[in-house]
Every structure is written in structure tokens, then in C-alpha cells.
Amino acid sequence: MAARTIRLASTGIWLPAKVLTNADLEQMVDTSNEWILERTGIRERRIAGDEVGVAQMGCYAAQNALEEAGLAPSDVDALIVSTATPDRLLPATACDVQAMLGADRAVAFDVGGACSGWLYALSVAHGLIAAGQIETALCVAPEKMSAITDWRDRATCVLFGDAAGAAVVVPSEEEGRGVLASYMRSDGTLAELLYRPPASTEVPVDVAEIVMRDGYIRMAGREVFKAAVRSMCEAVDAVLEQAGISKDEVDLLIPHQANIRIIEATAKYAGVPLERVWVNVDRYGNTSSASVPVSLHEAREAGLIRDGSLILMVTFGAGFTWAAMLLRW
Ligand code: ACO
Hints:
The protein is of the alpha/beta class. The protein has eleven helices and 13 strands. Bound molecules: acetyl coenzyme *A (ACO). Acetyl coenzyme *A binds next to α2, α6, α8 and β12.
């Protein structure tokens, strides 16, 4: 008998109301709308203020997903959070989300896969469900990249934004539906190309200025760019081969939203025309692991995903980490 696979019963998102445009950034650092648009495709991003923490953002997205699934917080067996920007280092952000949500029956823990973290979380949920250990998982990706961004560094501050995404994960009852293949890889030898020195997002900015000046994200942009394209193409090939599915059968490609040029290169390699590629990097920038679940949710709302649609999700992030998942909705 084949191992149980999973499907997504629902999706949910939360986005901060505050919009930071390229014109706003022109007032903050030596940059221009033209440079940002041409190099990244980003026009604006959302910024969560001090009034909302990362766990709270996750809780909002989780509530949104539970509502669509028609489930109560106490129906959740496992609450798995992916975030690169925890409010605090201990306990796991998932435990804080659990308490806010009231998911009193769930085991709650984090997975650390940077931008690939939400696909890692889905894979962990898949494993737990396939093993018969749980029936219902909630995979949540709240990311407050603004809290770890050096707003004086034009090379990085134009790239990131804040958002949260979530999905309820349950066993797939129907043969050929749900997750058809998944692939995960990491290469820790390249960690120094994209990392954040130790610090907490709870430290107030003025203290961080003095004590933890080093606590912001650092990135070797060009190297990351090349590795992102290479790794995402590899992951695309791997899941298609695993599932025995050809490139032209893919109905919708949902790539990690870091840079429009990376998205276009991945789409070209995957043989998926741009009208079948979800793009929101122009509106949100790079929201780390929230980018794929937010995209999935928006693509559903836009009517691009119907019963039976074949969706290819692919990500790349710090670590390096990369992953892909092929899903028959
Ligand atoms: N405005 C104006 N000029 C800038 C800016 C800016 N915001 N940032 C850098 N520049 C300048 C540089 O100083 C440099 O000037 P110089 O030639 O006088 O030295 C010039 O622009 C070119 O800089 P590069 O860094 O070489 O520019 P590049 O074309 O590589 O684009 C970018 C930079 C957009 C960061 C690109 O490398 C990139 O997108 N990399 C991948 C980033 C990424 O995807 N990260 C996320 C993946 S992992 C994750 O999601 C966490």
C-alpha cells in the first residue's frame, strides 16, 4: 500500500497595512525607483510596525486558514512554524502562536529553513501524517524581515518585506491528489553568503543601534542570485522526475518571490510561460518563507487554482536551503 500523502485543506494570510514604496526608500538611502525595479522587480513592500510581533502575525494567518477549513484551533494536532525572524529565541515561535491561537491539543515546534522553511514545514507535516502520528497540521510562516533589515544598507533594505502565510494540512483521501513529490536540499558550506549575526528582534531599535549593530541580515547578492537560479532549477527537475510528470503539464508555477529576474530564469528553465507563474514580488518584496504560502493563497483567490490544478512550488534561501513540491489541488 502506498504511503499516505497530504493535501492542503485551506490557506490563510496576513499582511500589514503599511506600504513602503520605492519612492519612500529614495528618501532613506541613496537609491532610485529605476534601480530597484530593474534589478529586482520590486515596487513596494509591506511593513509590520512595532505593535505586531511575529507570533501575532502567524496567529492571524493561522486563524484565517482555520476559518476556511472550518476547523477550531483545538482540532490541530501539530503546529509547525517557519520563521527567520522570531520575536525571541526561546521558546519556539510555534509555542507563542499556539498560546495565542488556543491550539491546546497541538505539538508546537519551529523548523529553520529560511526562505525554504514553509516547504520544509509541509514536508515534516507530510511525514507525520504518512506515519499515522497526526491527522491535522497547521503550517505557518510569519516573517518580519523589516526587524532584521539594516535600513541604512541600500544593498539589502530595498529587497525585503513583512507577511505571514499558513495552510491546514490533512491526509489526501483521493489517489493522485495532494502532494505528488517533494524535494529538499541544503548546503551549509555556503552559509556565509547570506546570514544574520546573533541578535533578537525584541531588542528595541535604539538599543540595537548601539549594542547589536551587527544583528542585521548580510548578503553577497550576486553569489546568492546565481545559486538561487541553479538550485531552484535543480529542484524543479527533481520533483518532476520523481512524479514522472513533464514540464508542460504544470498549470501554475509558484516560485519564491525574491527577485523578478530569478523568477523569470526559473520559469524559463521550467518551461512554464510567465502567464502561468505567480508573481507578487512587485507588491511585497522578499518575505522569506511567507512568500510561497502568500502566493498560493493569492493565486487561489485570483481563480488560478481549481480542483485538479497541478502546482509546482519552488524555493531557495539562506543556508543555503532549497526545496520544491508538486501538488495536485
Ligand atoms: N540602489 C542603487 N544602487 C545600488 C543599490 C541600490 N539599492 N544596491 C546596490 N547598488 C549598487 C552597488 O553598490 C553597485 O555599485 P558599483 O557598481 O558602483 O559597485 C551596483 O549597484 C551593482 O551592485 P550589485 O550588487 O552587483 O547588483 P546586482 O545586479 O547583483 O543586484 C541584487 C543586486 C538585486 C541584490 C541581486 O544581486 C539579487 O537579487 N541577488 C539575489 C538576492 C536574493 O534573491 N536574495 C534572496 C534569496 S534568499 C532569501 O530569500 C533570504
